[in-house]
Amino acid sequence: MKHLCCQCYVFVVVLCLSLSFSSAQDKEALAIIQRYEHASGLDKISNEEMSSWHIEATTNMEGVNMDIDMYYQDSTQLYAKVLMGDLELIMTMNGSQNATFTMNGETIPLPKEMAQALQKQLITPNSYRWNADDYLFTLADSMQVGKHICPGVQIIPKKTVPSLENSVVYFDPHSGMPVLLIATITEDGTTHQARCTYEAVKRYGDIKLPSRYVMTIDDSAQPVMDITIRSFKLGSSMPESLFEGLK
């Protein structure tokens, strides 16, 4: 289950934060996506601005509290620092050939094969972005979420995403913002249903997004992950000092 939760964490971070733009496909589904983009302000954000960001978050994963500080830039650089009590973990990616892992000040280089795999999995790939080049959009059945009947959009990757299928996002009929994601995740041949609720919409500069993401697996009422985004800044340059002593 812990390995599954790690997969879920990566999946949620990239899927919830990989926000982009769509073009005509299923007209009704497209209208829902476009309404969300307008409501969030994403329709005014360029792809260049979306190519780099800085996020600070607090996460509880299976009862373990973590503070996360993460920079991402141009699909080639990643810096992620995770604090768990007295334990400090740092992972860096500086190109597809250079990655390091640091635990409490001791740094080890990661093999090139692992660095390349991490670049595909941990850095936001185009296959996770909600745009017409990478996804097909179809209208899903509406579903009651809380007090509202919410329209759903099935988001289908044009390229197969390992372990992930049948992702449907439900949107608030009044605000246009996402409220629930339901996806099927396969782990070692076993299929699980992941549900992620989007809560507490907050403004981050020129855009507004949900600031809390709570994930449950299958029929469990106990969250396996609860993320609160403290800050999120688009177009944030990555300080070169973050890589000093880690190469």
Q: Which H/E pattern describes the elements? A: HHHEEEEEEHEEEEEEE
Class from helix and strand fractions: alpha+beta
Please count the helical segments. Answer: 4
CATH class: Mainly Beta
- Level of helix content? 10-25%
Task: Please indicate the count of domains.
Answer: 1
Question: Using DSSP, what is the number of strands?
Answer: 13
Query: What proportion of the residues form beta strands (DSSP E)?
Result: over 45%
How many angstroms does the end-to-end distance come to? 33 Å
Q: Based on CA inertia axes, which overall geometry fits?
A: globular
User: Per CATH, what is the topology?
Assistant: outer membrane lipoprotein receptor (LolB), chain A
Describe the largest sheet.
13 strands, antiparallel
Label this structure with key terms.
247 residues; 13-stranded antiparallel β-sheet; outer membrane lipoprotein receptor (LolB), chain A; single chain; DUF4412 domain-containing protein; alpha+beta
Write a structural description:
- Residues 1-24 form the signal peptide.
- The chain is α+β, with helices and mostly antiparallel strands.
- It has one domain: outer membrane lipoprotein receptor (LolB), chain A (Clam).
- It is 18% helix and 49% strand.
- The chain starts with a helix and ends in a 13-residue tail after the last strand.
